[in-house]
Amino acid sequence: MLRFFDQICIVKILKCYLDSIDKPHKCNLCSKSFPTPGDLRSHMYVHSGSWPFKCHICSRGFSKHTNLKNHLFLHTENTTPFPLIKEKEERSNSSNIT
């Protein structure tokens, strides 16, 4: 099992790599760029607020079915096969609390 510090380093390395990939598909609303048309299409749900996949428990919306499936682990077993995804979800949920 990787230590927390090692996980952070891996995430930073991956972010640097992903930032260097050519991203020719630009959002005309916020000027973010994406490597594929599908990524841009998924991003557009952020602006429309019309999410194609919704959690039946908390109504949170997702652009991809996989993200909804990962999210459902928070409601059921309280475990996920992807610890970093769970950690990110928990942080974003706590920042959305008003």
Helix content: 40-55%
Instruction: Please write the string of helix (H) and strand (E) elements.
Output: HEEHEEHH
Low-confidence stretches are none
Q: Which term fits the overall shape?
A: flat
**Relative strand content:** 5-15%
Give the overall pLDDT as a whole number.
Answer: 77
Largest sheet: 2 strands, antiparallel
For the record, the count of structural domains works out to 1
By CATH, the topology is Double Stranded RNA Binding Domain
Keywords:
98 residues, mainly alpha, Double Stranded RNA Binding Domain, two-stranded antiparallel ribbon, 4 helices
Notes on the protein architecture:
There is one protein chain. The protein is mainly α. Strand 3 and strand 4 form a beta hairpin. It is flat, with a radius of gyration of 15 Å. 1% of the residues are buried. A two-stranded antiparallel sheet has the order 1-2. Strands 3-4 form a two-stranded antiparallel ribbon. It is built from 4 helices and 4 strands. It has a single domain, classed as Double Stranded RNA Binding Domain.
Summary, kept brief:
GO terms for molecular function: DNA-binding transcription factor activity, RNA polymerase II-specific; zinc ion binding. With 98 residues, the protein is mainly alpha-helical. It has one domain (23-95): Classic Zinc Finger (Double Stranded RNA Binding Domain).
Helix/strand layout:
Elements: H1 4-20, E1 25-26, E2 33-34, H2 37-48, E3 53-54, E4 61-62, H3 65-75, H4 83-95
